[in-house]
Structures are given as C-alpha cells and as structure tokens.
C-alpha cells in the first residue's frame, strides 16, 4: 500500500500542476488517509496546502493526524482561522494532544485558541502537562505586543483581538523568537508620562514568570505574594506559551486548601462538593484511612496487652488505667497542633527543609512550657478533685511532660520528613500523629509507673 | 525567589558595612519588593533605616507594606517628618490602615498627623470597621465615573488621577447622590462596538455589590465565585464607599483558610507567620486549648474509674482494656472526617443550615457502611491475629459499629450547631469531637460488654 501511493506521486504532481483538482480528489478518495498522508512527504512544500484542501472532507482530519508534524505546522500556518477551527473540531481530543505535543509554541497557541472552551480544557488536561502543573491551568489567550508598538498600535490591537483574550490589562512583550522580554499594563500605557512612548520604553523588563511544569499551587501562591493579576508561563526554551490569571489562581488556592484540609483529616480529596458526592463515593474517600489507622492501633493494643498483668496486679496500677485516654488525647492534640502548623507553613512556602533545626529548637522550648503547664494543672486536679494517691499523680504528671515533648517533636519532624521524601506533608496531620504518639505515650507511661510505683 | 534573597544576605551586609550604597541600590532594584522586605528580617536592627533609605524610590512604599510590623515601627520611629509624609503619601489607604492596626498608639498618631487631610479622613473611616468586616479590607481609591462621559473623558480622567487608584480597570458609575448605578471596564471602553459611546451606554447596570459590614471572607469568596477583579462596597444607604480588589481577596482567602486550619487543630489563630512567632506567643496560642481538652478528658477518666472493678474482675474483661485506644482513635478519626468536611463546606458556602437533614441522612448511611467495614475487618483481625476469645471479638466489633455511627453524627451536627449559635464551626473539629466521642465510646463499650459477657 505504501509503495503503491509512492508510485502515483508523479501523476499527482502532474494533476496538481495542471490544476485538475476534481480528478485529483476522486483519485485520492480511493486511498486510506494514512497513505494519503505520506503523499505530503513527497510533494513540494508550497503544494501542501493545495493538496490538503483538495482532500475529501471526511478524509482531511484523519489524514492530518497521520501526517508528519512538520507538514502539520506548514498547514496550520497556511490555514485561515475558519479552516483551522473546522479541522480541529473534526479531531479527537487525544489526537489533538498528540499533534500539539510536537508543535512549536505559536502553533500550539493557535490550535488552542481555535478549539472550543470544553475541548481546550480537555486538551490542557490531557496534554503533556500533569494535573498539578501550571500548564494545566494556563490559558493561551493573552495580548502579545512588540517593543516598537505605540499606544495607538496597542489599543488598535486590543480593539481588534481583545474581546477573545482572557485579560487585556497585562500585556506581554516578546522578541521575534517569542521569548518573553517584558510586561506592560494598560494602566502604564494610559498613564504614560509622555505622549508617543513605545511599549519598549514603557515595559517592565524584570518579569516574574513560571514554567509550564511548575506546581500550580506554587504558581498561585506566587501570584498572591506579588499581587499579580496574571503571570506569564514559559516553556523550556523560555518562550511564552501562556498565562495564568488571578481568577484561576484563586480557584487553585481554594481547592488546594480544601485538599490539604481533607488530607489532614484523613480523607482522600476530590474536587466534588460534599453534597454532590454519593454515599458510596464518600465511604470510599474515608474508609481506607480509617482501616489503616485502625490497624495501626494494633501497636497500642499490643503494648497494653503486654502490661495487662501489671495493670491488674495492684490497686495503685489499676488506678492508672483511668488516665490513659487523657494522656493519649493530650499527646494527639499537642502533636496535631505542631504538625498542622508545619504543614500549613510548608504549603504557604513560609517554611522549608532548611528551617528544620530552627523549628525543632523552637518546638522543644514550647513543648517544655506546654508540658510543664499541663503537668502542674493536672497534678493539682488529680490531688484535689480525683483524690488519687500522690504516687499516681506523680506518674501521670511526669508522663504528661514527656508525652507533650514527644508529641511536639514527632509533630514537627514528620511533615518535613514526608515532604523530603516526596510525600504530601498533609498526610502527617493529627490522625497519624495521634496513632504514633499513642503508642509512645503508653510506653512512657508504663516506664514511668515502673520507676515511681516500682513494679518489675 | 524567597530562597534566592536569603542567599544574598551576606553580600548585602558586606555592602552595608563598607557603605557601598550605590552598588547596593542597583543590586536591590532587580528584586521584587515583597522579597526585599524579607531582607529586613535578616539584617541588624540598626541597619534597617539605612537599608530602607537606600531602596529605589519606587520600591520603598511597596517594600514597606510587605515588611514585618516590628520593622515598620522601627522605621517610623527613625523617619524624619518629611520621610514619613513621603512614605505615607505613596501608600494606598487600605494598606495604611492594615499597617496602622498593628502599630502602638503613638505611632498611629504620628502617621495620621503626617497624612494629608483627605487620606486621614479615609483612614479614620476605615479604622472603625470591625476586623472581620468588608469595610476593613476595602480601599477608597477607585475610579468613579458619570454616565454622560465618553471614552476620551474617561481616559483623560484616568490619565490625571489613575496613578493613585488601586485599580483603574473596573470603574464605577454613580448618580449625583453617589449611589452605584453601574460598572464599566476599560476593556468595555477599548473594545466598544461604536465610536463615541458614553459610559451610560456601555455600562453594565446589574452590579454585584457587598455591604461595608458584610463578612470579609464571604466577600472574598463571592469575588472568587464570579471571577471579579474588584467588587464595589456600599453603605447602608447604598452609596458607593469603596472597593475590594482581587489581591486583597486572595489574601483574605489564604489567611481565612489558615485561620480555619489553626482553629481546627485547636490553636488560637494569629496573622503572624510561624517562624516569626516567639516561643511564649506560640505557647499562649496552644496552651488554653490543651488545658481545656485535658480537663474535658476528666469525663473519660470518670467513666473508666467507674468500671475499674469490672475491668479487673475477670480475664475476659481485662482483655478488653487493650482495645480502648483503638476504639477511641477510630471514633475520633471517623468524627473528625465528617466535622472537617462540614466545616469546610460551611466555610466555602457549599452547605448551610437548611442542609442539616440531608447531611444527617447521608452521614447515617456512610457511617453504617464505614462501621460495618471496620467491624468485619476488626473481627477477622482479632480472631486470626490477636487470637482473643470470640466474645471479646464480638464486643469490640459491635462497639466499633456504634462508635463510628455516633462519631459521624456528632461530627456532622456539632459544626452546624456551632454556626447556628454564632460560634466559629471550625472549633468543632477533631480535638473536640474526639473528646466527646471518647466518653461516648467508653460508655457504649462497657454497655456492650455487659450484654455480651454478662457481668452486672
């Protein structure tokens, strides 16, 4: 088949040269699109658009998909907007994505602009950009200017094309190779100090930009930090390929926070609002974590089991059982306070890996203060209200200090460690901290009891 | 970027020490004001005024706004009257108000004295709005138009006054009594279909607005929902008094989420970043909640104490002690999952009071599914791995179902109830839910044990 089509190349060239388009079309219609695509390798470059336009309509899109990407570029550049829209609307999204992955930035832009919004969204999602990348949230509809333009040129361009742009207020200045060289706002132009200043004179050439593969939440936080209405997105070669606007950044921040909060509460996050999630889906989001945490509690049970005899041996020991929940809860709460603070700090970019020693040093001091306060109050309460023996009060109060210190340190270290090894730090929030601290608390409790009450 | 600025600290210190101010200034001018502001945390306090005076003029005000409030005080105290007036006149009114709110009274007085009368009046007005109100975050610097204006009039006005406005892109149209009658964007004007159209013809007269006393977080969420760059704020008589811009809305959303997260983790929220909060201040944010929760655990201790005899009476009962932590943790986790989901839903405005029955009905079904799953897995685990008696396995597994159902219902109801009586629902997150569910779990556990094992 492949050879067969090669054989007809001279014939095709002749038909093209003689402008016998009708004959050519009926001839081509008997071939497979994948084969016809090969023809484009054989003919002159200037004939490519003509040949494509001759193709039977139902064959055109399929043929386009099969074509070498250089020819696709040639064609897209030759297409009118209407032709491009027609071809793209005939393509499957995954094919469009495959095509786009091979295209230079300006062609990608043109394809995305001429897709309808739904398709564009799907393309962006499917495209090489991972779900959590900046590329997946960017838009390709922005105002692009040349440094030589004057205010009148800019406003004329905005008047002509601006209606379709996501924002016209922040405009990006590029060189002929589409590298981002500056940014200028409509405000800069409207409030220019002199008449007749060019874009090149008015623009700011220190531009904060992000890469297509940068984390989308970090991009949104950067925009928030610098109060940006839009941020330019560049590819590996530093060419401008898109922008992210403040409204999308807000959505990312809101849903990122929701995700963090859900993970911290041991729920698998989803984008769906609570009331729209079915009972089964809700169960599925929660049960794996409940199971995992329940099974992890085996350690705690094991420890208790181990000390079962000791606990029932004397009244002094039995009295200690009543304070197990209080110790465990306090440990969980104290650890949760730190871990959630650290997780949020990491999320907002306020703290990073290299702050670990500062955090630990701070938390040790806070833990001693908190532990001591709780211990004193607890000792008073146990003596005056619970009226237990002084040795029991000492055991519980001493344990309390240790538990709070352990919990604070575990709560500070685990989220940072999680981040370090590439996990979401939010996983290391109260539920996990509680499970770990529970086991440690019990060990300390019995060790202290052994020392103070003196059983072997 | 943030890390980048930290790296140049030694270099900056050296340039400062050698009084190479010119070099220092040109070096700093390539950074963003928000990053330069971080430098002030790193250098000696006595160098702060020197460094500030070196800053390029256009950067100084923006940098001042982003700075830690302690450094702002240091600077204001070091400023001559003339310097203070210059800095204040470069600040937006809403930023000035934010700064003033953190300052000691004598500094506030000095700032007000050095503001021009119009600005002082606006500052004073804004200062009277409650902390969480929209009035407290709005700015009074916006472009106000009359319906009869043409595009040329508008651009002339923007050219004259626009430099000082926080946004020029969304302009507000008012009648002679300053009632808001419409909104028009610079984009509408630039892309107007015909020459010579007036503001009245181009404006949108359906305007989304908020009141000065509306909750600021709700205002920010409204802006996010409708993708608004700015939202007009009206007083009781529906007169336009200010606007809120997207950058402030983003900050409100971020810090609102941080606040929710902190409250959910039983921490008193503050605006200060973690690393800048001192040990004592951190202790103060955490200890009241730890104390409260510790004392609340008295109920749990009381219940355990009450059943102490029963627990030590037989080996079958003693075996049950080992599973107390697992039951309590599972209850806490299951309840926390719901409460956090409901709290977030309330915060985002996705659920409200009238959804309570739908939520309960849904959570009952989810709870039964979760409880049953956990119960079955636990029964298997206790029989096969822990190798306990069948009656112990039955007691624990039956209790597990009840605990999960109770926890889910408590977790669903309490945040909504809290909202109903005017408390922050975020208080009703895992720590409180855990404390309540702990006590209920133990009661159920012993009741079930009584029924199954049969002690009186």
What do you see in this structure?
- The structure is a homodimer of 456-residue chains.
- With 456 residues, chain A is mostly helical.
- Chain A folds into three domains: 2-128, MgtE N-terminal fold (Alpha Horseshoe); 142-245, CBS-domain (Roll); 297-453, SLC41 divalent cation transporters, integral membrane domain (Tetracycline Repressor, domain 2, Orthogonal Bundle).
- In chain A, 65% of the residues lie in helices and 7% in strands.
- In chain A, the strands form two sheets. Chain A has a three-stranded mixed β-sheet with strand order 1-2-3. A three-stranded mixed β-sheet of chain A has the order 4-5-6.
- In chain A, α20 (315-321) packs across α23 and α21 (324-347) packs parallel to α23.
- Chain A is elongated and about 110 Å long.
- The termini of chain A are far apart.
- Chains A and B meet through α12, α13, α15, α16 and α17 of A and α12, α13, α15, α16 and α17 of B.
In short:
The first copy, chain A, has about 450 residues and is mostly helical. The first copy, chain A, is about 65% helix and about 5% strand.
Break the fold down into its secondary structure elements and pairings:
Two copies of one chain form a homodimer.
Chain A: H1 2-7, H2 9-17, H3 21-28, H4 33-42, H5 48-54, H6 57-66, H7 69-78, H8 81-90, H9 93-102, H10 105-113, H11 117-126, E1 142-145, H12 151-161, E2 167-174, E3 180-185, H13 186-190, H14 199-202, E4 210-211, H15 216-225, E5 230-234, E6 240-245, H16 246-264, H17 279-296, H18 298-306, H19 308-313, H20 315-321, H21 324-347, H22 356-386, H23 390-420, H24 430-453
Parallel strand pairs in A: 1-2, 4-5
Antiparallel strand pairs in A: 2-3, 5-6
Helix pairs in contact in A: 4-6, 9-11, 15-16, 18-24, 20-23, 21-23, 21-24, 22-23, 23-24
